[in-house]
What we know:
Blueprint: E1 5-11, H1 16-25, E2 32-39, H2 45-52, E3 57-59, H3 69-82, E4 87-90, H4 99-104, E5 109-113, H5 126-133, E6 137-144, E7 155-162, H6 169-192, E8 196-199, E9 202-205, H7 209-212
Parallel strand pairs: 1-2, 1-4, 2-3, 4-5
Antiparallel strand pairs: 5-6, 6-7, 8-9
Helix pairs in contact: 1-6
Amino acid sequence: MSGEVRVGVLVSGRGSNLDALCRAAADPGYPGRVVLVISNRRDAMALEVAGRWGVPAEAMPVSRYSHDDRARDRAMGERFREAGVALVVCAGYNRVLTEPFLEAYPDAILNVHPSLLPAFGGGMHAVEEALEYGVKISGCTVQLLEPGVPDGGPIILQRAVPVREDDDAASLLERIHEQEWLAVPEAVRLWCEGRIRRDGRVVRIAATPEEGS
Length: 213
């Protein structure tokens, strides 16, 4: 895939992954550019992060659509298409996307999750669940989203984080976030360079952009 890819980002929280992605995209050699940020929450700090990077941002709470998730997702898809977005990144987005949105961007939605999937997927408390289970290694996963089981899409890359004896949810999550800030820009780079090749559930990464184009 040649040229600069237009990237849209979905957010719900403080926007640390968005900040990391925008920082990476500020490099002239980076193959993607964040052109639009949408949040399901009007008070999401990520909207301020977008503003600091000069990226257009807006809130589209489900209350504007009679609390109909499918209607809101359809509207979000239309908004991204209007902005020419080719790739969507869920960077701390706390809602399950419905079919109208997923089908609008097949194999073009990246999601980051704070666990080594398939472990502790499908919810918002992966870190707490990992600690309760007693795992010795946690981490983060960037995957392709698709219809079906939440957090069940093909895995693009993972980064491991050892669990310390004195960890609580906050300390472990912060170290996982540090790995997410590396993993998200890298996965976006791979997608924008056309290096992601899917074979069923297995994602293979081409060694160079030329192989993937």
